[in-house]
């Protein structure tokens, strides 16, 4: 059986930030399970950068079924965690089940990849303090309020945690995360 990676997300997650790691990690030979608040078809979004706008724009993106609900997740079954961004982390961080899951990975020193607004979830889980993390630049105050050092970088590696700002950082972010996985959680 392939090593399993958990991807936690929900409605309004950034499409590219879900599908790029989902497909790239499957390409490496991992089984990737998508967990959400409930088992349902999720509606992702597309965030784009438009000249003249002070922030990103949002449009409807792809839909995709969640494999399992957060309450069904036994994090011990997984070798690593991915936390995509988009708007989903804004409400996911309030879910006690996702905080339970995220705490397991950080406390067990299992590899974690987080991008864009994803660090809002690890901050709410109380595990970002003392770490170094990238995030969408507008989240610098949130990252520092959680006790972490914010870095404006495309692939920030802090031990087994790899973070990035947003989907334009995907190549560097996933390259660094795969390097961590090959050492800490190679494909079985």
From TrEMBL:
<dbReference type="InterPro" id="IPR002818">
    <property type="entry name" value="DJ-1/PfpI"/>
</dbReference>
<dbReference type="Pfam" id="PF01965">
    <property type="entry name" value="DJ-1_PfpI"/>
</dbReference>
<dbReference type="InterPro" id="IPR006286">
    <property type="entry name" value="C56_PfpI-like"/>
</dbReference>
<dbReference type="InterPro" id="IPR029062">
    <property type="entry name" value="Class_I_gatase-like"/>
</dbReference>
<comment type="similarity">
    <text>Belongs to the peptidase C56 family.</text>
</comment>
<feature type="domain" description="DJ-1/PfpI">
    <location>
        <begin position="4"/>
        <end position="179"/>
    </location>
</feature>
<protein>
    <submittedName>
        <fullName>DJ-1/PfpI family protein</fullName>
    </submittedName>
</protein>
